[in-house]
Amino acid sequence: MPNLHTVCAVGELPEGQNGTIDVHGKTIAIFHSGGSYFAIDDTCPHMGASLSSGCVEDGIVTCPWHYWRFRLNDGAWADNPRVKIGCYPVKINDGLIQVEIPDPQPK
Ligand code: FES
Predict the structure, then answer these.
(1) 65 within ligand 1 shell (Cβ under 6 A)
(2) Which positions of the chain have pLDDT values less than 50?
(3) Which class is domain 4-100?
(4) Ligand 1 atom at shortest distance from the alpha carbon of 48
(5) Which of 41, 44, 55, 62 most suits a substitution to test ligand 1, by most atoms within 8 Å of the C-beta?
(6) 50 lines ligand 1 (CB under 6 A)
(7) 86 and 75 in contact (C-beta within 8 Å)?
């Protein structure tokens, strides 16, 4: 059973807009770009800027602080794709944007 978390209604995140959702104590950035929705970790691994505040062009978000670039479709650092941040499936169900995020593993 997928663990879906509702972000908002489809009409509440227009094309070209970004948003966030907090799940399990972590902020996830949501993007509506090129007619599709994407979800990646919001916190830039360099120094912690919010990627949802970045500019998106050609499927890549640029961090607003020091311009590291991350692909929206897989969370890879565009300049060194071996480095990746979390990337999550986005689904549309009954007019709602939902992100599939696994539960944290028990320690
Ligand atoms: S905080 Fe994102 S590039 Fe520095």
Answers:
(1) yes
(2) none
(3) mainly beta
(4) 1
(5) 44
(6) no
(7) yes
